[in-house]
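I hope you will forgive my troubling you with a question about protein structure. Could you please explain, in whatever detail you think fit, how the structure tokens follow from the sequence? Thank you for your consideration; the sequence and its tokens are set out here.
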Amino acid sequence: MKILIINGPNLNLLGKREPDTYGNSSFEDYLSKLREKFKDVEISYFQSNIEGELVDKLQWAERKVDGIILNAAAYTHTSIGIGDAVKAINTPVVEVHISNVTAREEFRHNSFIAPHAKGVILGFGLKGYELALSSFL
């Protein structure tokens, strides 16, 4: 099984940015642990702060992976383009958020991705990626 994790803007700063909200671990450190736990799954990873690159990666991934775990970060609430890209591909996508976005600012309560996703996981910290990965098994 092949799973692609796509992270959006500022998630390259995990471990440094707002540790009370996002924790003290870098995503790369967490990814190593995830790969160790799911040895039978080929997990690839992509992060970008650029909206168009996220759209390109979603389109590229269609029929190349069995599932996509997407944390579009702030683009979740602003990018119709990313929502449209998820809608346009046949590969199942699970939307993940480290924090509980519904307990945060009002503008974070809307997702342009969720209506087209297989599911949404939020508020469980980095463990949300593991939960999303498990949903594909």
Q: What stands out?
A: DSSP finds five helices and five strands in the chain.
